[in-house]
Design a protein that fits this description.
Length: about 375
Amino acid sequence: MTRLSAHAVMKTAKSPRAPKLAAAAAAAILALAGCKGLPTVGAGAPGGGTSGGGTSGGSAAPAAPAQSGALITEPQAGFSPVYQLIKHARHSIDLTMYEFSDTKAEHDLAAAARRGVTVRVILDQREKSHNSSTYDYLKSHRVKVVWSSTRFEYTHQKTLLVDGSTAVIMTANLTSEYYSSTRDFLVTDTKAADVTAIAQVFNADFAHRPVKPSDGRDLVWSPTDSQAKLLALIGGATKSLRIYSEEMGDTTIEDALIKAAKRGVNVKVCGENESGEYDSDFSRLAAAGVHISYYSSSHGFYIHGKVIEADYGTGHAKVFIGSENFSSTSLNRNRELGLITSNQKVLSAIARSFAGDYRNGKHWSS
């Protein structure tokens, strides 16, 4: 399934644009007749061999560090770190994934199950058309796989937990057709309180039991507390905010960004705006002093990461990285997971990546 069709379907539940988007999604799905992938990106520079994103609507991925401590930056790093964790698992693998279409990851999970590792997978039940082949393959290869609970509108979480000790919290889906062209981030978390909380929630979600997630030391859960935590992060910024956001549309978050800009915070947003979907949101934000750079190519570099970096360069800098988009659905009705960290290597890597992506995007002028 293309990024357009998958995310258009998700967005239908959150805004006055819903009827228009629903029709567009249906038309796209019918036209694609089998979820045809986006054209692949050239093999030159990371994310494609083109340049001049600022004048072409944002089609090229700038260079960025592939890995910095706990942070893995896509598309530069590739997904070998994920494959290696699966390959070296000794006891257990728990994976929650919104969209899964990666043959190598499927085979690695099956191989782990064959060598005696307990492998459990939760796939989003509303993405059955996209996930069914993966579901069937895993089920036939000793992997314990279930569809997500209907308790959540979508299970949009993307998390890998290995041996009950190492978690990878991702903004990325395991959909290999997009790996070469998409800005995403993966964060490794080994803090015991976080890992324990992730395991407890996985166990409940796998069994379709209700659970009140613990935040451990760093975690941000939807639908439990993500909106409140993101608002607190934005509201506490005194110097700067750098925002990666694939989606806009949550008025509460947008209002918080506007308030930050009006109190003198330098607010920059780097996002997606394919087919002008967020024109009204961007106009409203820009009129209040928010600086916006965006990408809109259906076949080029794509902003899929979800990040809020607050006050980089100060002693109280923090960054949120997770699966949560700025939409009411994502924050209040989905199962989602992110974290907030003060890790200096993560902060620096995000700042470097953002600087290039913001510069190379198309800048909004109101």
